[in-house]
Design a protein that fits this description.
The structure is a single chain. By secondary structure, the protein is an alpha/beta fold. The protein folds into 2 domains: 3-56 and 306-408, Aspartate Aminotransferase, domain 1 (Alpha-Beta Complex), CATH 3.90.1150.10; 71-304, Type I PLP-dependent aspartate aminotransferase-like (Major domain) (Aspartate Aminotransferase, domain 2). The chain has helices at residues 3-13, 46-49, 58-70, 82-94, 105-122, 146-150, 155-158, 176-182, 206-218, 270-273, 289-304, 307-328, 351-359, 382-404; strands at 25-29, 32-35, 40-43, 98-102, 133-137, 168-171, 187-192, 195-196, 202-203, 222-226, 250-253, 264-268, 332-338, 341-346, 362-363, 365-367, 371-374. Helix 4 (82-94) packs parallel to helix 11 (289-304). Bound molecules: pyridoxal-5'-phosphate (PLP). The site of pyridoxal-5'-phosphate has 14 residues, from helix 5.
Length: 409
């Protein structure tokens, strides 16, 4: 099928939820994607933080092929060898005690919210009103299902679907005084992204995170870190919270976990995890043998190929190169982020830059209208950074020239 045929068919048969770029991808290899015309693209978005090992990594291919010969699915009514193995690995890396596997990020958030409500009921004798309020943060993004959406601090996503899950209240991002005012004995959880992703790569301040930890501890509420975008190596650490020296009670992960197969997880401290009993929560697909086996291969590969220090090194180099552009163009306001989760905030809309970069064979993304977001695979090398920056520099130079003499457009 050609791009035009696929576009016509999608326009007719799909629920119109996506505004896709006009490219039909057919295959991927390491940091590159190839479209139906054979054109090559350098992928600095990685399927929105999913393809952390790039495309078609041999270790993931091996795990997938081998497992697909044995067993795809058994449901959670039975055992298979890989769920516990993956849980053990994730608990070692995170310092948490137990895992529950989901199919996506938003489901991990749903489960974490349920866990917080279940945990709050534990110490509540009959008749005593349990703590039920969830404090989330403005400008956050936690997913599209009704609970995760209710906790997403951006009215544009929530408003068309209200009323959503009741009992969520928002705290101003990084406003310690607002947090202190709102954490009280009605709160069962504080939910935050250590680095807001969709919100524009905005890190939580150490003071805010530390205060959220201290206040949740004081009120016996759970501190939930949503690491669905910033976790599993993206910042050059396994988890972004490790860079703050803070230990959350619950952590959600997903995106890169199974290298593109749908898999997420809720990781929880023992006392929180045991608030769920058999029957409290469940899923048909979550934690199946195929996805868990590939996830084990993903984690092993990050370790074997020493990708965490690599992410820190190549991320620092990328950041430096982006700073060079910032110095040159007044409409680049700020470069921020950690490891390979980087952003460039502009004083103008970024959509046109993303389109022009795509035409030149570079994939990136724009969030919040003015923030260029970079989430490349952990395996990129400085030469890939140089190529990406050269394309961006070319796009910027042309736009700058057009701005100076609009008739050239
Ligand atoms: N939480 C964060 C921080 C995210 O970035 C996302 C997705 O972008 C989600 C939750 C939702 O994950 P999913 O799209 O897998 O449902």
């Amino acid at each position: 099928m050609t791009l035009a045929q696929v576009r016509r068919a999608e326009a007719q048969f799909l629920v119109p939820t996506y505004d896709r770029s006009p490219v039909l991808f057919e295959r991927g290899r390491r940091c590159y994607l190839y479209d139906s015309t054979g054109k090559r693209y350098l992928d600095f978005l990685g399927g929105i933080a999913v393809n952390a090992l790039g495309h078609s990594h041999p270790a993931l291919r091996r795990a997938l092929t081998e497992q697909s010969r044995r067993l795809f699915h058994v449901s959670n009514l039975f055992y298979h060898p890989y769920q516990a193995a993956l849980a053990r690995r994730l608990t070692r890396l995170s310092g948490l005690d137990r895992a529950f596997f989901t199919n996506s990020g938003t489901e991990a958030i749903e489960g974490a919210l349920k866990l917080a409500r279940a945990y709050a009921r534990l110490g509540s004798p009959n008749g005593h009103r349990p703590r039920w309020r969830i404090l989330a943060v403005e400008n956050s993004f936690h997913g599209r299902t009704c609970g995760a959406l209710a906790a997403t601090g951006q009215a544009k996503y929530r408003a068309p679907f209200e009323p959503l899950l009741p009992g969520v209240r928002f705290v101003r991002f990084n406003d310690v005084a607002d947090l202190e005012r709102k954490v009280d004995s009605s709160v069962c959880a504080v939910l935050l992204e250590p680095i807001q992703g969709e919100g524009g790569i905005c890190p939580v301040t150490p003071a805010f995170f530390a205060r959220a930890r201290a206040l949740t501890r004081r009120h016996n509420a759970l501190l939930i870190a949503d690491e669905i975008q910033c976790g599993l190596g993206r910042t050059g650490r396994w988890f972004a919270y490790q860079g703050y020296g803070i230990e959350p009670d619950v952590v959600t992960v997903a995106k890169p976990l199974a290298g593109g197969l749908p898999l997420g997880a809720i990781l929880a401290r023992e006392r929180a995890a045991l608030a769920f009993q058999p029957g409290s929560h469940g899923t048909t697909f979550g934690g199946g043998p195929l996805a868990c086996r590939v996830a084990l291969a993903f984690l092993e590969t990050v370790e074997r190929e020493r990708l965490l220090p690599h992410v820190r090194r190549v991320g620092a180099y990328f950041r430096e190169r982006l700073e060079e552009l910032r110095e040159k163009y007044a409409w680049v306001k700020e470069v921020r982020g950690q490891g390979l989760m980087l952003a460039m905030e502009l004083t103008r809309p970024g959509k046109d830059i993303v389109r022009r970069a795509l035409e030149r064979g570079l994939i990136l993304n724009c969030t919040h209208d003015t923030v260029l977001r970079f989430l490349p695979p952990y395996i990129i090398e400085p030469r890939h950074v140089d190529t990406a920056v050269a394309i961006l520099a070319d796009v910027f130079a042309r736009m700058d020239a057009e701005q100076r003499s609009p008739e050239k457009k």
